[in-house]
Amino acid sequence: MINKLTHLAVGKIYSSFALKGGVKVKPYSDDLSHFRSFKGKVITLLRHDTIKELTVLNTEVKGEWPILFFEGYTTPEIAQSDLKGGEIYVPRHLASPLKKDEFYLGDLIGLNIYYKGNSIGICTSYFEAAHIIIEVQQQDRTVYFPFIKEYFEAPNFINNQVELIKGDLIE
């Protein structure tokens, strides 16, 4: 299991690239510069509930696409069949640097969700649709909320909580 407190998802392998077994990555952020720091590092790949540790031999950026080359993957066919669709996780210090008032979506997991000062559950997951949707585990059920500013205040990571400001979603 990947520890999402110490590792962050930075992208998903879109396809193989080049004749030497590289892969094209669909990044989860607009900042691609941090992908260059992966050279020589071990990344974690989650694909079909299987976790692999891969050593990055080389990195490139082609337009909006980071390109990664891994040890042991020397042909596009092997890279495509073994890696395509895999989600890339890296230690937090290798992820894209945050700007003021930014946070990683993974940091929402584990936050207590409050409404009018009362705890209504804990954020257990999130996914992207038209908006970011957070999954909140309550005592007897799981509910989903769009994580948008009209419904939530900014997360308070010091107090490990976020306040829901629009109660019509609770019903």
UniProtKB/TrEMBL annotation:
UniProt GO molecular function: ribosome binding
Top-level taxon of the source organism: Bacteria
Key words of the record: Chaperone, Cytoplasm, Ribosome biogenesis, rRNA processing
Compartments reported by the entry: Cytoplasm
Main location as per UniProt: cytoplasm
InterPro entries: RimM, RimM_N, RimM_N_sf, Transl_B-barrel_sf
Spans traversing the lipid bilayer: none
Free-text comment on this protein's domains from its UniProt entry: The PRC barrel domain binds ribosomal protein uS19.
Stored HAMAP family: Ribosome_mat_RimM
Sequence similarity: Belongs to the RimM family.
Name of the protein: Ribosome maturation factor RimM
